[in-house]
Structure formats: structure tokens, C-alpha cells
Write a structure and sequence with these properties.
The structure is a homodimer of 206-residue chains.
Chain A lengths: L25 H21 L5 H8 L3 H8 L2 H25 L4 H18 L3 H6 L6 H24 L8 H17 L5 H14 L4
Helix pairs in contact in A: 1-2, 1-4, 2-3, 4-5, 4-7, 5-7, 5-8, 7-8
Chain A binds a DNA duplex (30 and 30 nucleotides) through helix 1 and helix 3.
Chain lengths: 206, 206
DNA sequence: GGTCAGGTTGACCCTATAGTCAAGTTTACC
DNA sequence: GGTAAACTTGACTATAGGGTCAACCTGACC
């Protein structure tokens, strides 16, 4: 029986076959790398539900090889989510946390989040938790939720955010924006940034 | 050969088998009515991409009977879109046109549009023109576009709408909102209405 | 250079959905 | 109540995607 990827990776590893402790044969290691690269590119272009056969073809292997190494879509996602969005999401959170002014902190975080979604349509799958069995996705979603709650709380306390605005409102807007980017025609940078400004403007206290 | 629905209905008829000029046998007329009712209900609940077999089952007929009378999904949509959303969309436009104050006109139209989308998830398919071969959908989408352009123009002229806000911005927001309603968890009335207010607030001149 | 565990894959099966049609059933009308 | 046109349908084909596995390859090591 071939080695199977299980869901026991510690957060941050994200590498196929790692948890087995066994090392891969040269050809297998090459295939894993090619699959990862193909998945990354496919997920970026078409979202996390890209047919695995397409990814396999792009990697020059058969579909079954993906199942061998990653166990299926979930495992593949776990293996590349770090490179796909997690790194940037955590970076956006860290960056925001380093901003002193409460309003600027919120504005920075929201702007960066929207910026990431513009570049990376797959980010919407993180928000929607389309694949709730992926541990890393769940962890990431939780971190993002905590961040939002905390930012909104701070904004209210500092009086820089309208009092009737909630973290749930922010989540809803993010989901809506992500879906619009994925389903509709992609807006120009200029249009997109202007809409970000509209949104930020709407958050100030009345 | 059984009569087939073609795409020659004049706007507003929306009835299967009408354009043939022939009248239906009693059993066929009953089936058409049942299919329409089932489609209406299914489209409301699950959107315009509900499997036809499901609609057929709900109507107590076979899938082939839907093809006989409506020619396929497109024809079915044409046959029920009027009852589904077109009536309300046109009503919202008319209502807005009767409002004197330019800002109130915009606010009324946006509020009603969002209200309709809340009640009717299928409305998003009209905006996105998921089924671009449906004549009535295309006509409806065009009417809505014209309405938006005109409202925004009037708002700018009257100085009640921020100058950098465009009809495309309104369209984008509508699409985003419709998708969020369809894909994500349905927000409470209270939350939804509050978000409508946020959006309207963001449109005022700075 | 032979062996075999590790690795790969073509060829499956399964599900869901769209769409078609020959054969059978039902209605309307004489 | 017979018949022909209208109507219905079960059974079919086709497409797309997930998932599995027996049989076959190949790299690593002696």
C-alpha cells in the first residue's frame, strides 16, 4: 500500500507525506513538487474546487498519484494553503497589530484583506470554509474571526468606528466582495480601490 | 411531434406553448400549470439552476414533459421569470420613478432592490445573467442597467450623490450582496437592513 | 545486474445532471 | 366506441467529476 497523507500535520508544515516519517523516493519527490506547483497555480486561477484531473494533467502525473500523496482535495489544500493565502493572511494581521492608531489599524487590515482577495480569488474559500475538514483552513478562519472581533471592539472603544457596526457586518462584506470577485467580471484596480474607500468611509461614526 | 416552446414569446406573455397558437389538451394544460408552479417554487428555494428532474418530480410528471412544453431550462425560466422577479423589479423601478426627491429616489430604489434580493435569491441570476439566452432576462437586465445609470446621473446633477460613485459601483455592490445572500448564511432582517443603511450612508457626498 | 518495496497508472466504478426518442397512453371528436 | 392526433414516459445516451485498485514500472540497495 502506498503512503497516504493523513490529517496529522502540525500547523505550518503543510507538506505531503511528512507525517509518515518515511522519506520519498526521488521520482516521487519530484512528482510531489510538481503536483504542489500545479495545485498552487490552479487554485489561484480557478479556486479551490479545480478538478483534480486538471491539476494532475498540469503536473504531468495521473489523478491517482495525487490521491497517493495527498489523499484527495482536502490534503492537497492543506499542503498548499500556506503558500496560497495563509502566509499573507497572517502577515496582514501582524501588520495591522503593529499599527498604533485604532482607526488606521482597522483601515489597514480591511484594505490588506481586500487587496489579498483581489489578487487571490481562492481567499474566498477560506472565508466561506468551503472545505471545513481542512484543519489549517479552520485555524485560519478562526484567527481571522478573532482579529475582526478584536479590531471592532477596539474601534468602538476608541470611538473611531460607528457603534452599530459589528464584526459580523465586516464578515458579510468580505464574503460578498470575495464572491463578487470570483463570480462577476473583475473590476479594474481603480474601481476596486474606490469601492474600498467607499466602504471605509461608511464605517466612521455618524 | 409534440409542440415545442420556442423563444418567440412577446415580452410579458411568459407562457408555454402560447406562440404555437394551438390550444392544449386538457391533460397537457394541467401538466403545464403544475410544472410552472413547481418551477416557481423550486427556483425560489434553490435558484435558477435547480435540476429539472426535481422540478418534474414535484410537478408529478417526467422530465421529458418539461422538455416537451418548455424546451428546456431556458424556456422554463422565460415562462416563470415574470412571476419570479420581473414583476417586482419593474414595480421597484416604477415606484422609484414616482419619487420626487433625487436622493429619496435613489434610496428607495436601492432599498427595494435589496429587499427583493433578500426575499428572492433567484434575483441574483438576473443580475449575473446566468442564462443569457433568455430574452426576458436580458430585457430585464437592460432595464435595470438603464435605471441605475439614470438614477446615478440624476443624483450627481442634484448633488445628493457623491461624485465618484458610478452605476458600475452600484451594480458591483448588488452582485456582491446577491451572491452573499445565496452562498453564505442568511442574515437576520435586522442585520440586513442595518447593512443597507451603511451602504446608503456611504453614498452621500463627502 | 537482480530484487523488491515504493511508486504509478489505465481502466475502472459511482454519482449527478442534461438531453433525446421510440413506444405506449390518453383525450377529443366523429 | 373507434380512431387519430396529442401527449407522456421509461429507458436511453452523453458529459463531468470524485474516488479506487490490480497490475505494472522503477529506483535504491545489495
Amino acid at each position: 500500500m502506498s503512503p497516504r497523507a493523513r490529517a496529522t500535520n502540525s500547523p505550518g508544515s503543510g507538506n505531503a507525506d511528512r507525517a509518515t516519517g518515511t522519506s520519498l523516493r526521488a521520482d516521487a519527490a519530484r512528482n510531489v513538487a510538481q503536483i504542489r506547483a500545479a495545485a498552487l497555480s490552479a487554485f489561484r486561477g480557478r479556486g479551490l474546487s479545480t478538478p483534480l484531473e486538471e491539476i494532475a494533467a498540469a503536473a504531468g502525473v495521473s489523478k491517482a498519484t495525487i490521491y497517493n500523496h495527498f489523499g484527495g482535495r482536502q490534503g492537497l489544500i492543506d499542503a498548499v494553503i500556506e503558500d496560497l493565502v495563509a502566509t499573507e493572511m497572517y502577515a496582514a494581521m501582524d501588520k495591522a497589530r503593529r499599527v498604533e492608531d485604532p482607526w488606521e489599524r482597522i483601515a489597514t487590515y480591511i484594505t490588506d484583506r481586500r487587496e489579498l482577495q483581489y489578487r487571490e480569488p481562492a481567499a474566498i474559500d477560506v472565508l466561506l470554509m468551503t472545505y471545513p475538514d481542512s484543519e489549517q483552513l479552520v485555524a485560519l478562519a478562526k484567527a481571522a474571526t478573532d482579529m475582526s472581533n478584536s479590531l471592532v471592539q477596539q474601534g468602538h472603544n476608541a470611538g473611531v468606528l460607528r457603534q452599530d457596526f459589528t464584526a459580523a457586518d465586516l464578515y458579510y462584506t468580505d464574503v460578498a466582495n470575495g464572491l463578487a470577485l470570483r463570480e462577476g467580471p473583475k473590476p479594474s484596480r481603480e474601481d476596486y480601490d474606490r469601492r474600498t474607500r467607499f466602504f471605509l468611509d461608511s464605517l466612521r461614526p455618524r
